[in-house]
């Protein structure tokens, strides 16, 4: 269809296979049909084509919409889905009529629009999945506001905290991922139609009308930028890569926690596999795959950045090669978030083990040093040294925190500061109490159960607002789709 003017011979079969995007374009089928319909409606309204021609074209497009992609012949020599759809319209109307469909548009603005249309829904789905994940984390946190566990820095036991506090730390990262995706959505939701190949058109088109019919919120400001930019895709992939790195950190902790060394969660059978040789094995495979997918999504971002980084304006076929990277990042992220949300909903925390790990460690050391500051009048640095010395001696003697006595503290103080400590013994024991230590950390954001409940309420509020936004955006898109279909049907009569 395209070559009969310019060329005398068909394209080399291997070359057309190599340069065709047909296979990847399958997921653009529906957006491309919609865009063609919106464009045709506008062409008729602006009297660029006759109502009769528009009706015939819209009839063909409605027919294609009803039949689905199986009605198309996806031959690579057609190059892409845009040509396959046009070929269908020409075949079901005539060359004379169907040949008018591509008036005042180009595959360049059309593909940019189609990717955006397809991407909008994907972003909304990922946002919905993320909200489920935050919901799972929050629900588990809610049950564990009093579940004491060790908090870590450098993966060394640091201070006592709660399982709720730890889970909520992940939840907030996902809330920020949601915020990023909301911004990504706004940027992607802008229409390039009307840009044509790069410089717009001299036909009196109405790009605002086309944008509205497609549910876009805005127009691209520059026709060259409209066809030549994919930063909305890079932005999406960057947000997804960050999200996957956040998800991978959670996955890594599930792997650690379910190990015999930590043994603080039970990964249910449904999310584990065993070994083909070692009959005792229970492997946290879902978490492992999610952890690895983060590398894949980050890799897609890097590959896409590399495609884009030195492309001259405006459209080059290099851009076609970027699209599958976007979909891969989208698909991998979507499935990872969904499965991890189910895994979080299913894990069984081993609360006694969490508590025991905290008890057996010197997690309360900071609180003891703080007590020496508050109640014995020591400078923090001195208190730090005294408690540090006490821990060193205890470790050397093979003592655990519960074996520590007031005398141990006294002798550490004598060693370090050359004097006795001015602390009543009754202040010593409570300083080593895990619950007290957690409860004393009651500022907003900290693990004290009361503060944690407030934080959980904040998380719930965030979820509620963001769920509403996803629903509203989805409704707007589906409404536009429905309206367009109705209009196309009416005009095709
Ligand atoms: N298949 C192309 C893509 O996916 C569509 C635009 C092709 N434009 C062109 N001038 N060959 O980007």
Brief rundown of the structure:
The chain has 493 residues and is mostly helical. The chain has helices at residues 3-6, 13-19, 22-25, 29-45, 51-67, 81-92, 95-98, 107-142, 163-188, 207-213, 223-228, 231-257, 285-308, 318-346, 351-360, 365-376, 380-396, 406-417, 425-431, 434-439, 449-491, and strands spanning 148-153, 156-162, 190-191, 218-219, 265-266, 348-349.
Determine the mean pLDDT: 97
CATH topology of the largest domain: Fumarase C, Chain A, domain 2
- CATH arch. level architecture of the largest domain: Up-down Bundle
Main β-sheet, spatial strand arrangement? 1-2
Question: What is the CATH H-level superfamily of the largest domain?
Answer: Fumarase/aspartase (Central domain)
Q: Residue ranges: pLDDT <50 for 5 or more in a row?
A: none
What is the domain tally? 3
Q: Biggest β-sheet, characterized?
A: 2 strands, antiparallel
The shape, in one word, is elongated
Spell the H/E element sequence.
HHHHHHHHEEHEHEHHEHHEHHHHHHH
Query: Which percent band covers the strand fraction?
Result: under 5%
Q: Helical region count?
A: 21
Tally of DSSP β-strands: 6
Q: What is the SS-derived class?
A: mainly alpha
Portion of residues within helices: 55-70%
Output the radius of gyration. 31 Å
What separation lies between the terminal Cα atoms?
A: 28 Å
Small-molecule components bound: arginine
Write up this protein.
This protein has 493 residues and is mainly α. The chain has three domains: 101 residues, Fumarase/aspartase (N-terminal domain) (Fumarase C, Chain B, domain 1), CATH 1.10.275.10; 246 residues, Fumarase C, Chain A, domain 2 (Up-down Bundle); 68 residues, Ribonucleotide Reductase Protein R1, domain 1, CATH 1.10.40. Helices cover 66% and strands 4% of the residues. The chain has 21 helices and six strands. The strands form three sheets. A two-stranded antiparallel sheet has the order 1-2. Strand 3, helix 10 and strand 4 form a beta-alpha-beta unit. Helix 4 packs across helix 21. The protein is elongated and about 100 Å long. It starts with a helix and ends with a helix. The model has no long low-confidence stretch (mean pLDDT 97).
């Amino acid at each position: 269809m395209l070559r009969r003017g310019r060329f005398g011979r068909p394209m080399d079969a291997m070359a057309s296979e190599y340069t065709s995007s047909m296979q990847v374009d399958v997921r653009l089928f529906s957006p491309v049909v919609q865009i063609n319909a919106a464009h045709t409606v506008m062409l008729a309204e602006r009297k660029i084509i006759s109502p009769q021609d528009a009706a015939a074209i819209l009839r063909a497009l409605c027919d294609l919409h009803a039949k689905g992609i199986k009605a198309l012949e996806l031959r690579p020599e057609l190059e892409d889905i845009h040509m396959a759809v046009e070929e269908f319209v020409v075949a079901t109307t005539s060359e004379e009529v169907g040949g008018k469909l591509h008036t005042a548009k180009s595959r360049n603005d059309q593909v940019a629009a189609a990717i955006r249309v397809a991407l909008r829904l994907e972003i909304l789905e990922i946002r919905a999945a993320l909200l489920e994940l935050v919901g799972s984390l929050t629900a588990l946190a809610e049950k564990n506001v009093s579940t004491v566990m060790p908090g870590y820095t450098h993966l060394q036991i640091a201070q006592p905290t709660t399982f709720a506090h730890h889970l909520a730390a992940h939840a907030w990262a996902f809330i920020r991922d949601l915020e990023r995706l909301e911004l990504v959505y706004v940027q992607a939701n802008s229409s390039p139609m009307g840009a044509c190949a790069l410089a717009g058109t001299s036909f009196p088109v109405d790009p605002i009308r086309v944008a509205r019919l497609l549910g876009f919120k805005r127009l691209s400001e520059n026709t060259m930028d409209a066809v030549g930019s994919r930063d909305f895709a890079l932005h999406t992939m960057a947000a997804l890569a960050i999200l996957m790195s956040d998800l991978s950190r959670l996955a890594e902790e599930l792997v650690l926690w379910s190990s015999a060394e930590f043994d603080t969660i039970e990964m249910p059978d449904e999310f584990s596999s065993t070994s083909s040789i070692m009959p005792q094995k229970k492997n946290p495979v879902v978490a492992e795959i999610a952890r690895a997918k983060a590398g894949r999504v980050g890799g897609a971002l890097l590959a896409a950045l590399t495609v884009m980084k030195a492309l001259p304006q405006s459209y080059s076929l290099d851009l076609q090669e970027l699209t599958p990277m976007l979909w891969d990042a989208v698909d991998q992220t979507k499935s990872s978030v969904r499965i991890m949300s189910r895994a979080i909903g299913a894990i069984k925390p081993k609360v006694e083990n969490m508590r025991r790990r905290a008890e057996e460690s010197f997690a309360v050391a900071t609180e003891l040093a703080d007590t020496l500051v508050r109640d014995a009048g020591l400078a923090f640095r001195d208190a730090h040294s005294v408690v540090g010395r006490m821990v060193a001696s205890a470790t050397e003697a093979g003592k655990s925190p519960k074996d520590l006595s007031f005398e141990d503290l006294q002798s550490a103080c004598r060693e370090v500061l050359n004097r006795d400590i001015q602390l009543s013994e009754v202040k010593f024991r409570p300083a080593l109490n895990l619950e007290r230590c957690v409860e004393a950390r009651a500022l907003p954001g900290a693990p004290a159960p009361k503060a944690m409940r407030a934080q959980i309420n904040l998380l719930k509020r965030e979820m509620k607002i963001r769920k509403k936004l996803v629903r509203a955006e989805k409704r707007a898109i589906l409404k536009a789709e429905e309206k367009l279909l109705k209009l196309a049907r009416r005009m095709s009569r």
